[in-house]
Amino acid sequence: MSLDPQFFRQDDVANVPGPPRDLVGYGEFPPRVRWANEAKVAIQIVVNYEEGSEKSFAMGDGVNDGMYELPFAVDDQRDLAVESMYEYGARAGIWRLFRIFDAANIPVTFFAAAVALERNPAVAEKLARRGDEAAGHGYRWSNHYEMTRDEEREAIRRAIASIEKTTGKRPTGWYCREMSVNTRDLVVEESGFMYDSDTYNEDIPYWTRVDGKNHLVVPYSLVVNDARYVVGTGYASPEHFFETAKASLDRLRNDGDDVGRMMSIGLHPRITGNPARADALARFIDYAKQFDDVAFMRRIDIAEKFAEQVPAPTD
Protein backbone atom coordinates (compact mmCIF):
# COMPACT_ATOMS: atom_id res chain seq x y z
CA MET A 1 0.00 0.00 0.00
CA SER A 2 1.31 3.44 -0.91
CA LEU A 3 -0.06 6.77 0.23
CA ASP A 4 -1.04 9.47 -2.21
CA PRO A 5 1.68 12.16 -2.18
CA GLN A 6 -1.11 14.62 -1.33
CA PHE A 7 -1.19 13.02 2.14
CA PHE A 8 2.19 14.53 2.95
CA ARG A 9 1.20 18.13 2.22
CA GLN A 10 1.75 20.58 5.07
CA ASP A 11 -0.27 23.46 3.64
CA ASP A 12 -3.68 23.89 2.06
CA VAL A 13 -3.97 23.60 -1.69
CA ALA A 14 -3.67 26.98 -3.37
CA ASN A 15 -6.67 28.59 -5.09
CA VAL A 16 -9.30 26.44 -3.36
CA PRO A 17 -12.57 28.43 -3.18
CA GLY A 18 -13.58 29.92 0.13
CA PRO A 19 -11.84 31.69 3.01
CA PRO A 20 -8.32 30.65 4.02
CA ARG A 21 -7.94 28.54 7.14
CA ASP A 22 -6.39 30.08 10.25
CA LEU A 23 -5.15 27.58 12.82
CA VAL A 24 -3.31 30.16 14.95
CA GLY A 25 -5.79 32.88 15.83
CA TYR A 26 -5.04 34.93 18.93
CA GLY A 27 -2.67 32.35 20.36
CA GLU A 28 -1.65 32.60 24.00
CA PHE A 29 -2.56 36.27 24.42
CA PRO A 30 -6.07 37.17 23.18
CA PRO A 31 -7.15 40.81 23.54
CA ARG A 32 -8.57 41.78 26.92
CA VAL A 33 -12.15 42.82 26.32
CA ARG A 34 -15.04 43.61 28.62
CA TRP A 35 -18.72 43.50 27.83
CA ALA A 36 -21.82 45.32 29.10
CA ASN A 37 -21.36 46.61 32.65
CA GLU A 38 -17.70 45.54 32.49
CA ALA A 39 -18.72 41.88 32.50
CA LYS A 40 -16.08 39.24 31.80
CA VAL A 41 -18.48 36.80 30.12
CA ALA A 42 -21.09 37.76 27.54
CA ILE A 43 -23.84 35.14 27.26
CA GLN A 44 -25.45 35.22 23.86
CA ILE A 45 -28.72 33.31 23.50
CA VAL A 46 -29.69 32.53 19.92
CA VAL A 47 -33.20 31.50 18.99
CA ASN A 48 -33.05 29.70 15.66
CA TYR A 49 -36.47 30.57 14.29
CA GLU A 50 -37.06 28.32 11.27
CA GLU A 51 -40.53 26.81 11.69
CA GLY A 52 -42.49 26.82 8.44
CA SER A 53 -39.46 27.50 6.25
CA GLU A 54 -37.85 24.05 6.47
CA LYS A 55 -37.74 21.62 3.56
CA SER A 56 -41.04 19.76 3.21
CA PHE A 57 -43.37 18.23 0.66
CA ALA A 58 -45.90 20.83 1.77
CA MET A 59 -43.53 23.55 0.51
CA GLY A 60 -42.96 21.70 -2.76
CA ASP A 61 -39.43 20.49 -1.98
CA GLY A 62 -40.06 16.79 -2.56
CA VAL A 63 -38.18 15.99 0.64
CA ASN A 64 -38.83 16.27 4.40
CA ASP A 65 -36.50 17.82 6.92
CA GLY A 66 -34.73 15.29 9.10
CA MET A 67 -34.32 17.07 12.45
CA TYR A 68 -36.99 15.17 14.33
CA GLU A 69 -37.45 13.79 17.85
CA LEU A 70 -37.26 10.16 16.73
CA PRO A 71 -35.08 8.40 14.11
CA PHE A 72 -37.97 7.76 11.72
CA ALA A 73 -38.23 9.08 8.17
CA VAL A 74 -40.87 9.25 5.48
CA ASP A 75 -39.09 9.59 2.18
CA ASP A 76 -41.64 9.71 -0.62
CA GLN A 77 -44.54 11.76 0.73
CA ARG A 78 -45.45 14.37 3.32
CA ASP A 79 -44.24 13.55 6.81
CA LEU A 80 -47.04 14.99 8.91
CA ALA A 81 -45.28 14.04 12.15
CA VAL A 82 -42.22 16.12 11.30
CA GLU A 83 -44.39 18.97 10.06
CA SER A 84 -46.38 18.99 13.29
CA MET A 85 -43.21 19.06 15.39
CA TYR A 86 -42.18 22.24 13.59
CA GLU A 87 -45.70 23.60 14.08
CA TYR A 88 -45.32 23.06 17.83
CA GLY A 89 -42.35 25.43 17.83
CA ALA A 90 -44.31 28.18 16.10
CA ARG A 91 -47.59 27.64 17.93
CA ALA A 92 -46.46 26.94 21.50
CA GLY A 93 -42.70 26.66 21.96
CA ILE A 94 -41.74 30.16 20.89
CA TRP A 95 -44.20 31.73 23.30
CA ARG A 96 -42.86 29.67 26.21
CA LEU A 97 -39.37 30.95 25.35
CA PHE A 98 -40.63 34.52 25.17
CA ARG A 99 -42.20 34.14 28.63
CA ILE A 100 -38.85 32.99 30.02
CA PHE A 101 -36.97 35.87 28.38
CA ASP A 102 -39.56 38.39 29.56
CA ALA A 103 -39.46 37.11 33.14
CA ALA A 104 -35.65 37.29 33.18
CA ASN A 105 -35.62 40.64 31.33
CA ILE A 106 -32.86 39.54 28.96
CA PRO A 107 -32.33 40.31 25.24
CA VAL A 108 -31.68 37.60 22.67
CA THR A 109 -30.71 37.29 19.03
CA PHE A 110 -32.91 35.48 16.57
CA PHE A 111 -31.28 33.65 13.70
CA ALA A 112 -34.38 34.26 11.65
CA ALA A 113 -35.33 32.41 8.49
CA ALA A 114 -37.27 35.06 6.62
CA VAL A 115 -40.16 32.86 5.51
CA ALA A 116 -40.69 31.60 9.06
CA LEU A 117 -41.32 35.17 10.24
CA GLU A 118 -43.56 35.85 7.26
CA ARG A 119 -45.72 32.86 8.18
CA ASN A 120 -46.05 33.91 11.84
CA PRO A 121 -45.93 37.71 11.90
CA ALA A 122 -46.88 37.81 15.58
CA VAL A 123 -43.44 36.42 16.39
CA ALA A 124 -41.77 39.13 14.31
CA GLU A 125 -43.85 41.76 16.06
CA LYS A 126 -43.01 40.37 19.50
CA LEU A 127 -39.25 40.20 18.95
CA ALA A 128 -39.27 43.72 17.55
CA ARG A 129 -41.28 45.00 20.50
CA ARG A 130 -38.84 43.37 22.91
CA GLY A 131 -35.86 44.92 21.13
CA ASP A 132 -34.39 41.56 20.19
CA GLU A 133 -32.06 41.26 17.21
CA ALA A 134 -33.18 39.52 14.03
CA ALA A 135 -30.05 38.31 12.25
CA GLY A 136 -30.38 36.77 8.79
CA HIS A 137 -30.66 32.98 8.75
CA GLY A 138 -31.54 32.56 5.12
CA TYR A 139 -34.66 33.24 3.10
CA ARG A 140 -35.72 29.70 3.99
CA TRP A 141 -33.98 27.21 6.27
CA SER A 142 -31.90 25.71 3.50
CA ASN A 143 -28.33 24.72 2.79
CA HIS A 144 -26.46 27.48 1.04
CA TYR A 145 -23.78 25.08 -0.15
CA GLU A 146 -26.44 23.61 -2.44
CA MET A 147 -26.84 26.95 -4.25
CA THR A 148 -24.91 28.54 -7.06
CA ARG A 149 -23.26 31.86 -6.27
CA ASP A 150 -26.03 33.78 -8.05
CA GLU A 151 -28.76 31.79 -6.32
CA GLU A 152 -27.20 32.44 -2.94
CA ARG A 153 -26.84 36.16 -3.67
CA GLU A 154 -30.55 36.32 -4.51
CA ALA A 155 -31.51 34.32 -1.39
CA ILE A 156 -29.54 36.72 0.82
CA ARG A 157 -31.11 39.72 -0.89
CA ARG A 158 -34.63 38.37 -0.43
CA ALA A 159 -33.97 37.48 3.20
CA ILE A 160 -32.85 41.03 3.96
CA ALA A 161 -35.92 42.58 2.35
CA SER A 162 -38.30 40.16 4.04
CA ILE A 163 -36.87 40.52 7.56
CA GLU A 164 -36.82 44.29 7.25
CA LYS A 165 -40.50 44.18 6.29
CA THR A 166 -41.64 41.86 9.09
CA THR A 167 -39.53 43.32 11.93
CA GLY A 168 -39.11 46.91 10.82
CA LYS A 169 -35.33 46.67 10.87
CA ARG A 170 -32.73 45.47 8.41
CA PRO A 171 -30.59 42.55 9.67
CA THR A 172 -26.96 43.47 10.33
CA GLY A 173 -25.78 39.97 11.22
CA TRP A 174 -25.80 36.76 9.19
CA TYR A 175 -25.69 33.03 9.91
CA CYS A 176 -26.57 30.28 7.40
CA ARG A 177 -27.85 26.82 8.09
CA GLU A 178 -24.85 25.46 6.20
CA MET A 179 -22.66 28.07 4.54
CA SER A 180 -21.05 27.79 1.13
CA VAL A 181 -17.56 28.80 0.04
CA ASN A 182 -19.20 31.97 -1.33
CA THR A 183 -21.23 33.00 1.72
CA ARG A 184 -18.80 35.37 3.41
CA ASP A 185 -17.84 37.00 0.10
CA LEU A 186 -21.51 37.64 -0.64
CA VAL A 187 -22.23 38.97 2.85
CA VAL A 188 -19.38 41.47 2.49
CA GLU A 189 -20.36 42.27 -1.09
CA GLU A 190 -23.86 43.17 0.07
CA SER A 191 -22.20 45.70 2.43
CA GLY A 192 -24.99 46.13 4.98
CA PHE A 193 -23.83 43.53 7.49
CA MET A 194 -21.62 44.31 10.47
CA TYR A 195 -20.77 40.66 11.15
CA ASP A 196 -21.38 37.04 10.29
CA SER A 197 -21.40 34.04 12.63
CA ASP A 198 -20.65 31.30 10.11
CA THR A 199 -17.80 29.82 12.12
CA TYR A 200 -17.17 27.83 15.29
CA ASN A 201 -13.48 28.55 15.78
CA GLU A 202 -13.23 31.05 18.65
CA ASP A 203 -14.66 32.27 21.96
CA ILE A 204 -14.04 35.91 21.02
CA PRO A 205 -14.94 37.92 17.91
CA TYR A 206 -12.17 38.59 15.43
CA TRP A 207 -11.48 40.63 12.31
CA THR A 208 -10.81 39.10 8.93
CA ARG A 209 -10.20 40.48 5.43
CA VAL A 210 -12.51 39.84 2.51
CA ASP A 211 -11.77 41.41 -0.87
CA GLY A 212 -9.56 43.98 0.80
CA LYS A 213 -12.23 44.98 3.35
CA ASN A 214 -12.28 44.44 7.10
CA HIS A 215 -15.06 42.13 8.23
CA LEU A 216 -16.02 41.10 11.76
CA VAL A 217 -16.76 37.49 12.71
CA VAL A 218 -18.75 36.77 15.88
CA PRO A 219 -18.32 33.00 16.31
CA TYR A 220 -21.12 30.60 17.19
CA SER A 221 -21.01 27.23 18.99
CA LEU A 222 -22.85 23.93 18.74
CA VAL A 223 -21.88 22.73 22.23
CA VAL A 224 -24.57 24.36 24.38
CA ASN A 225 -27.10 23.84 21.62
CA ASP A 226 -30.45 22.14 22.04
CA ALA A 227 -30.11 20.32 18.70
CA ARG A 228 -28.12 17.86 20.78
CA TYR A 229 -31.39 16.66 22.31
CA VAL A 230 -32.41 15.15 18.97
CA VAL A 231 -29.27 14.51 16.91
CA GLY A 232 -25.94 12.78 17.46
CA THR A 233 -24.37 12.08 20.82
CA GLY A 234 -26.23 14.72 22.74
CA TYR A 235 -28.38 15.45 25.75
CA ALA A 236 -30.44 12.61 27.18
CA SER A 237 -32.23 14.91 29.62
CA PRO A 238 -32.65 18.60 30.44
CA GLU A 239 -30.16 18.13 33.26
CA HIS A 240 -27.44 17.45 30.70
CA PHE A 241 -28.19 20.76 29.00
CA PHE A 242 -28.15 22.58 32.33
CA GLU A 243 -24.93 20.89 33.46
CA THR A 244 -23.17 21.65 30.18
CA ALA A 245 -24.27 25.28 30.22
CA LYS A 246 -23.27 25.71 33.88
CA ALA A 247 -19.85 24.10 33.35
CA SER A 248 -19.25 26.31 30.31
CA LEU A 249 -20.03 29.47 32.25
CA ASP A 250 -18.03 28.39 35.30
CA ARG A 251 -14.94 27.78 33.18
CA LEU A 252 -15.30 31.02 31.22
CA ARG A 253 -15.53 32.99 34.47
CA ASN A 254 -12.37 31.31 35.74
CA ASP A 255 -10.46 30.46 32.60
CA GLY A 256 -6.97 31.02 33.96
CA ASP A 257 -6.48 34.51 32.55
CA ASP A 258 -8.13 37.91 32.54
CA VAL A 259 -9.58 37.64 29.04
CA GLY A 260 -13.28 38.32 28.53
CA ARG A 261 -15.02 35.76 26.34
CA MET A 262 -18.47 35.03 24.98
CA MET A 263 -20.71 32.00 25.50
CA SER A 264 -23.20 31.01 22.81
CA ILE A 265 -26.42 29.13 23.58
CA GLY A 266 -28.39 27.83 20.60
CA LEU A 267 -32.13 27.17 20.96
CA HIS A 268 -34.97 26.04 18.70
CA PRO A 269 -38.60 26.71 19.68
CA ARG A 270 -39.65 23.21 18.60
CA ILE A 271 -37.00 21.70 20.90
CA THR A 272 -36.37 23.86 23.98
CA GLY A 273 -39.90 25.20 23.68
CA ASN A 274 -41.03 21.93 25.27
CA PRO A 275 -41.70 22.33 29.03
CA ALA A 276 -38.95 20.17 30.58
CA ARG A 277 -36.25 21.59 28.35
CA ALA A 278 -37.53 25.13 28.84
CA ASP A 279 -37.29 24.58 32.57
CA ALA A 280 -33.58 23.72 32.28
CA LEU A 281 -33.03 26.91 30.26
CA ALA A 282 -34.85 29.03 32.85
CA ARG A 283 -32.83 27.50 35.67
CA PHE A 284 -29.57 28.22 33.87
CA ILE A 285 -30.57 31.83 33.25
CA ASP A 286 -31.35 32.21 36.97
CA TYR A 287 -27.96 30.70 37.80
CA ALA A 288 -26.07 33.00 35.46
CA LYS A 289 -27.84 36.17 36.57
CA GLN A 290 -26.45 35.91 40.09
CA PHE A 291 -22.95 36.86 38.88
CA ASP A 292 -21.86 40.48 38.47
CA ASP A 293 -19.25 39.53 35.86
CA VAL A 294 -21.81 38.01 33.47
CA ALA A 295 -23.99 39.88 31.00
CA PHE A 296 -26.69 38.68 28.61
CA MET A 297 -26.24 40.49 25.30
CA ARG A 298 -27.50 40.46 21.73
CA ARG A 299 -24.99 39.38 19.13
CA ILE A 300 -24.98 42.81 17.48
CA ASP A 301 -24.15 44.40 20.86
CA ILE A 302 -21.23 42.00 21.31
CA ALA A 303 -20.01 42.96 17.83
CA GLU A 304 -20.22 46.67 18.57
CA LYS A 305 -18.65 46.37 22.02
CA PHE A 306 -15.77 44.35 20.61
CA ALA A 307 -15.19 46.79 17.75
CA GLU A 308 -14.99 49.67 20.25
CA GLN A 309 -12.18 47.93 22.13
CA VAL A 310 -10.46 46.14 19.27
CA PRO A 311 -10.84 48.38 16.20
CA ALA A 312 -10.47 46.98 12.72
CA PRO A 313 -6.88 46.90 11.44
CA THR A 314 -5.85 49.99 9.53
CA ASP A 315 -3.19 48.40 7.32
Summarize this structure briefly:
By secondary structure, the chain is an alpha/beta fold. 35% of the residues lie in helices and 13% in strands. It has one domain: Glycoside hydrolase/deacetylase (TIM Barrel), CATH 3.20.20.370.
Count of spatially separate domains: 1
Kindly report the average pLDDT value: 95
* CATH fold topology: TIM Barrel
For the record, what is the CATH homologous superfamily label?
A: Glycoside hydrolase/deacetylase
* Helical content (DSSP H or I, runs of 4+): 25-40%
For the largest beta-sheet, the strand count, sense and barrel status come to: 5 strands, parallel
**Class by helix and strand content?**
alpha/beta
Which CATH architecture? Alpha-Beta Barrel
Radius of gyration: 20 Å
Low-confidence stretches: none
Count of helical segments?
8
Order of helices and strands: EHEHHEHEHEEEHEHEH
Structural overview:
One of its GO terms (molecular function) is hydrolase activity, acting on carbon-nitrogen (but not peptide) bonds. It holds the Pfam family Polysacc_deac_1. Residues 80-297 form the NodB homology domain. This is NodB homology domain-containing protein. It is built from 8 helices and 9 strands. It has 315 residues and is an alpha/beta fold. It has a single domain, classed as Alpha-Beta Barrel (TIM Barrel), CATH 3.20.20.370. Strands 1, 2, 3, 8 and 9 form a 5-stranded parallel β-sheet that branches. Strand 4 (173-174), helix 5 (183-190) and strand 5 form a beta-alpha-beta unit. The longest helix is centred in the first third of the chain and has 25 residues, at 80-104. The model has no long low-confidence stretch (mean pLDDT 95).
